[in-house]
Structure prediction request, 198 residues.
Amino acid sequence: MLRRLTSRLRRFRRDEEGAMIAEVVIMFPTLFAAVIAMFVFFDAFRNQAINLKAAYTISDAVSRETEMITNTYLINAWRMHRFLTNSPALTRLRVSVIQYEADDDSYSVVWSENKGGAGNMENAELQRMVGNNEIPVMPDGEVLIMVQTWVDYTPNFSVGLDSFTFENTIFTRPRFAPSQVCYSHNGTFAGRICPIGS
Prediction:
């Protein structure tokens, strides 16, 4: 009996079957973590690209508008942004029209409206952006449409990437004339706000 047990122990010591299983058990958690991390980072970049394209879409639509921009128009633009991004969180949208005057070398906010709680742009914030070189160079009297979007993003898995917000700022010139980017809350000419000289 002792001889038989010793023989089996020797065979077990020399047996190499099952070595692959041990390697798989060691490597599988690492491979699984790498696949999950690739998925999370791919999803983050995909969401960033979708948000950027949605911002460009809204900016292009506003630049082609020939009627006054109204509150209803901006609500629908915000709804379209939420639809395009398909974000579970509430997105934020701000449309501002800015103008540059060379006489006093000044940038000013003609009008600014937001949806989703972004807050309207004030001249102080615009001056900060000018100081940080975030505003394109503009000739005298130039008018720009600035569309800003914010989308909160939370990764599906915890791989060292915390929740953050995608923020995009798009600048577009009016396609036809500065007068096309007048804002009126209710669409009437009495309360409209237009760029200087339009």
